[in-house]
Amino acid sequence: MANIFRRWRIWILPVLTGLYALLICILVPILLTKSMQNGFKKEDQGALLGGGFALLALPIAFYEIIQHMIHYTQPRLQKYIIRILWMVPIYAVNAWLGLIYPKISIYVDSLRECYEAYVIYNFMMYLLAYLNADHQLEHRLEMSPQVHHMFPLCCIPDWEMGHEFVHMCKHGILQYAVVRPLSTLISFICALNEVYGEGEFRGDVAFPYMIAFNNLSQFVAMYCLVLFYRANAEALEPMKPIGKFLCIKAVVFFSFFQGVLIAILVYCGVISNIFDTDNTDDIRHISAKLQDFLICIEMFLAAVAHHYSFSYKPYVNLAQGEPWWDAFRAMWDVSDVHNDIKEHFSVVGSSLSRRIRGRGAYQQTWGHVNERTSLLPDQVIPTAHSAPGGSFSGYTSDPGHSDNQFGSVEDLTEPRASGNNVIT
To answer: What cellular component terms from Gene Ontology apply here (predicted)?
Structure first.
């Protein structure tokens, strides 16, 4: 028995594939029977078609997640990748449940909206873990050309390259991880008290204010993410970042604006003209289902995009690998999120005093930071012979190393031999 568990990498995929096939064989006939009993209405047709795309997306997403757990050789990076990959199953199941049980959509939508913020947080942490493995990110940025603000914020004073730039970018992104769950909670409370007014752009309901609030927060997060990418584009090149950025933006930001657009079309009467109905409740019901139906289709496309953009293949045979339970535990352990959000509140609470002190608060000698920055992942600077698991083979341990290139970052994308470890 113990030998069977040690060989879990061999049997885990066939077993899970069989269980998933069994689930489909049970679930699909039940849904078909229920649809025929209801007269196979358009709502049932939409639920079946959307469910078909969701069932196609789930195995692709789970395959990639399991492969990362099997080849869990770079915990500092892969724990964030696994969390990002869970976005497709959560979104797909959420949207499908909204199609089948529209009355509970407000509850499952709350989970999806909160996970949006969680994905943005993990993507930023993934970039920081990738760039700051040798603890020289801020030093490299200090030596880099100044990155200027873009339109429409070009009038804002430039953030000084180095500590200030990283500080502002990461907290600009992290604020969305705080705002989104908070606005979701407020919307949920307003809906229970019948003052939310979903789809109504009136001054006496909460819906337009929540849309504007979330829109502003998303804009700030996306802007800081783009600005951070511009400053580190060359260093991120080995990891092929364009596809990863597009996956995050397309799923998280596009789905939000898609919902806003559908709500505007409902309010302007466009959807009512298409579906030939003037009943307000029916129009909102149709618009909610339309959003869920589109998300089911989009999650299939996102699963395919994630399969190529966040592939497990660069991590195969890098080292022995960590036990699968370490990957599973890291996937659900959100203590790092808790600590970083606490730091964010601390930073926001003391922002006024930092403004009074001026930019001198950011001008610190490299290697000595007065304010602890927990968002920069703490890592032991590895060498070419570092132990596997939490290291990056190929990094130099010399703090005075002047080369700005990321030797071990390239190891994740290109085959290379290093000592006794052969990267394939």
So the answer is: membrane
Give the pLDDT confidence of 101-122 residue by residue, as tens digits: 877 777 777 778 788 888 888 9
What are residue 80's DSSP bridge partners? Answer: none
- Specify whether the CB–CB gap between 239 and 231 falls below 8 A: no
- Class of residue 47 by CB neighbours under 10 A (exposed 0-12, middle 13-18, buried 19+): buried
Q: For 417, phi and psi rounded to 5 degrees? A: -95, 135
Q: Which residue has the tokens 């995009």?
A: 305
d(CA 126, CA 319): 20
pTM over 0.85: no
Strand partners, 416: 423
Residue type, 210: M
Find the Cα–Cα–Cα–Cα dihedral 228, 230, 232, 233, rounded to 10°: 140
Owner of token pair 């470890």:
421
Name, in order, each residue with C-beta under 8 angstroms of 67's C-beta and a sequence gap of 6 or more.
Answer: 312
269 with 335: CB under 8 angstroms?
no
pLDDT surpassing 90 at residue 7: no
The Cα 118–Cα 80 span in angstroms is: 10
- At 248, list the tokens: 């995050």
Helices within 132-251 (DSSP H only): 137-142, 163-192, 207-231, 233-236, 241-248
> pLDDT tens for residues 344-387?
667 666 655 655 565 554 454 444 444 444 455 554 434 333 33
Report helix, strand or coil for 394. coil
pLDDT bracket for residue 126 (50, 70, 90): very high
Q: What angle do CA 211, 213, 217 make, to 5 degrees?
A: 115
Report CA-CA distances (Å) from 405 to 31, 304, 378: 55, 31, 20
Rounded Cα distance, 371 and 192, in Å? 42
